[in-house]
Amino acid sequence: MSGEKMLRTIIKKEILNNIFSFRFLVAFLLLMIIVTITVVILTDDYLRRIDEYSLRQGEIENYMRNYAHFNRINPILTPSQPPLPFYSLIRKISPDDYITENVFQEFNSDPLPIMFPLIDFVFIVTILLSLIALLFSYDSICGEKEDGTLRLMLSNKLSKAKIILGKIIGGTLTLFLPFLFSLLIGLLIIHLNPRVSWKGANWGAFGLILLGSILYFSFFYCLGIFISSRHRSSSSSIMTSLFVWVILILLIPNLSPYLASFLSPTPSKIKVERDVERITMDERDELMRKMWREKQAELYKQYPILDENKNLTQAEQARKAVEDPAYKKAYQILSDQFKIIVAEANRIQGEKVRGMRTELDRKEESQMLLSLGISMISPLADFTYLATDLSSTGLRNMIHFQRIVGEWRQLFSDYSEKKRAAIEKENPAVDSWNVAVDMSDRPRFQYKEEALAGRFKWTLPFFAVLIIYNLIFFTAAFFSFIKYDVR
Amino acid sequence: MTWKVAKKEIVSNLLSYKFFIVILLTAILIFTSFFIMHRDYKSRLADYQLIKPKPTEPIAVIPPNPLSIFSKGLEEFMTRSFEISVVQIAARSGMKSGNLLFSYFPVPDFLYIVRVVLSLVALLFGFDQVSREKERGTLKLMLSNSLSRAKTLIGKWIGNFLCLSIPFLLITLLGVVFLNLDPDTRFSSGHIVRLAIIVILSLIYIAFFLSLGILISTLTRRAAASIVILLFIWAILVFIIPNLGTLLARQMVDVPSVKALSEKRQQTWTREVLLGEEDRRKGESSWEAHYKAIYSDMDKKEENYRNKFNSLVRLSKNINRISPVASFVYAVTEIAGTGVGEESRLKSAVVNYKNSIFSQIISTRMGKAGKEYPTFAYRYRALSQIFSEGALFDMVWLIFFNILFFALSYFAFVKYDVR
């Protein structure tokens, strides 16, 4: 037999061996049931979220028709993440839970996801698929040794390299089948739902995630074969496999943010927020009063007419300004100066706050990057980042969301300035902040997913780590099998 | 005779590679977890010293709970700073919006390690108890003596349980002793009692998985098949049922999202402020009335949300209890004082606090009263109350699962074909 044909025979044997095994059946059933249930429940939940989202948007529109005014408009128009079609497969973090523009953080919270985090496609791949990969590979070398079939195989004119290649290719191919099949059922459920529509980019992202899951799966398969070829008996091989699995899957990712928080600590967020509030409220008012007193004294000296009338109430002063032209000029200067001082006090305090906030953000970001780096040791974390970022349910989307919110905020503040100027021009006496305004022509926040290319570029390092792991463990499995004592 | 079987099990375990791996794993995990969670607790303690309210601040904050080292649960939610303002309670959260990766993976506390890893370990001790001895033929030999099947099974169970629990207890004890050396975390006797109950619950939990392992081992002919089935059952019990149950309950009880609630509150508050401004321009001073309007509206929304949320919690708890893992998690978190029940009770206490000082806040805002507020104090529920409010049920439920699975494995073993 030629070499190539031999390889094909071994792959075929491996495939048949797997397909007719008991564990294949169990894995197949399990995946099918879990994927189906998960997709059905998540799709249902996604539709409910869409309904709630449009209801909320309607309420905001309704409010804006009746009570729109520029003071405190920002918290009303807080941008919110619309539900994405991918939510029927993958959920991780949503900007709605983290970016809040509200004056008040919410007292009510939803602690249930903390107790039991959600199950989604990422969970199925990271936990179940890796477990399946190890369960099929832990005895593929030492099991055959124990049965004695390995010796028989090698007594033919068959090289060890071909056997191991055949095992890895055949194993990965067959074991990926039940996963693909159950996924197909899931996609069918999603596709048949008339209210869920996936676009081209969604399919593209899905294809990349699938590629990631193949890499993830084959890594664990190679790892299993490597461990198997380091052991003489399959009962100790499974112990080592599960040991490594627990460390990689259940320990490293969970420890990484904690480890990073010790290595690169951040200041207390509560403290910073409280300080910010103090600086922008009480302290600012204090500063403003002080500056205003000084300015007033200076102006009173300059314009005695102001000094004479300083005991009048605000309304009386305004009336006098209309009647008395001499007073009007001085009064104009006085009120202009007041505006300048308010702006100046806001600027000084704003500067301080910005400094504190930038410092906090910088520290938080460096801590986050550190935990990202540490957790990338674990293939689970790599796959999780890759899948959530490609599906816009992860960190990348958070950054993207913040960016488009920033753009929209700029647009809105330009709009707001223009609109207020127009109101003041029409009637200078009116307080343009605290008056109902027709804002139906305002720029509206529109969420747009980041282009697939950008998301893909961001996930390249995660792909790279998975590929490197694959290469390392493939080589390791290959060489330790070459050296394996088949007796 | 039973004891002899148990002793044989212990000796054969002690020398095995499996035992070595398991001890290594348990030790690594528990020590790392204690170390990490302890440092996390200390940093939260330091933060608490910074944010402790002064008498002039109407703020409710509780100090971090030392038992959160073992079961963090909802601790992050509970130690938020609840700041009472003229219209509502603002909850500043500590870690939540900082490093986002905290929310990617579950917290590696003691509860997590027992729940996920030790259950797996217990299965590893049980999975080949019967099928392996059959494969080797030693089962036949054993039963050819005057040894009853019941005694064999009980002996096996006891031997393996001791091999599992004694190292686990020793490692945990050692860890706790180390933690106790730190003056900041010196546990009170009340904490020690709670901790002891948590450890007992963990043992019951582990025992359940051991029985499950033995049961599947007697139902299958080969150890390799047994481990495959067990790992899948494990994944279903530990991850899938409790997590899907919560989502399923959400489909049945319609609870608005926190975001929706927050938007509605914002609308009420800005609307009333606008109306107040308009009144002011007309020369009427009606702020107090507007504040009251905001206040009553917020209270109504708040109550409505909490009622719905509580029924969601009840339903999802009951669905999740299909899996003993959920019962275990509920019981441990409640006993540690970081569970859903304790959190909701703390919130009620904060609401009561707000109601008690609310009129004073309005008067202060209007410049009519002084600025000193009573301090907020919170007492965790007593153990007896925790038990009567569900923990006892969860504990009994766990024990019931234990007895059930042991009985099932007994019947399966009696009928087992040893050839």
General description of the model:
Chain A is built from 18 helices and no strands. Chain A has 487 residues and is an all-alpha fold. In chain A, helix 5 (121-137) packs antiparallel against helix 16 and helix 9 runs antiparallel to helix 16 (379-390). The mean pLDDT of chain A is 86. Chain B has 419 residues and is mainly alpha-helical. Chain B has a 3-stranded antiparallel β-sheet with strand order 1-2-3, with helices on one face. In chain B, 50% of the residues are buried. Classes of the chains: A mainly alpha (487), B mainly alpha (419). Chains A and B meet through helix 2, helix 3, helix 4, helix 5 and helix 10 of A and helix 2, strand 3, helix 4, helix 9 and helix 10 of B.
Which chains have the largest interface?
A: A-B, 105 and 110 residues
What is the overall pLDDT average of chain B? 86
The overall strand count of chain A is 0
Gap between N and C termini of chain B, in Å? 23 Å
The tally of helices of chain B reads 14
Largest sheet of chain A, in brief, is: none
Cα Rg of chain A:
33 Å
Distance between the termini of chain A: 25 Å
Q: β content of chain A, as a range? A: under 5%
**Care to count the β-strands of chain B?**
3
What are the secondary-structure elements of chain A, in order, as H or E?
Answer: HHHHHHHHHHHHHHHHHH
Structural class of chain B: mainly alpha
Strand order of the largest sheet of chain B: 1-2-3
- Strand content of the residues of chain B, in percent? under 5%
Largest sheet of chain B: 3 strands, antiparallel
Q: What's the tally of helices of chain A?
A: 18
Which regions of chain A contain 5 or more consecutive residues with pLDDT less than 50?
Answer: none
Instruction: Sketch the topology of chain B as an H/E string, one letter per element.
Output: HHEHEEHHHHHHHHHHH
**Strand-pairing-aware structural class of chain A:** mainly alpha
Mean pLDDT figure of chain A: 86
- Helix coverage percent of residues of chain B? over 70%
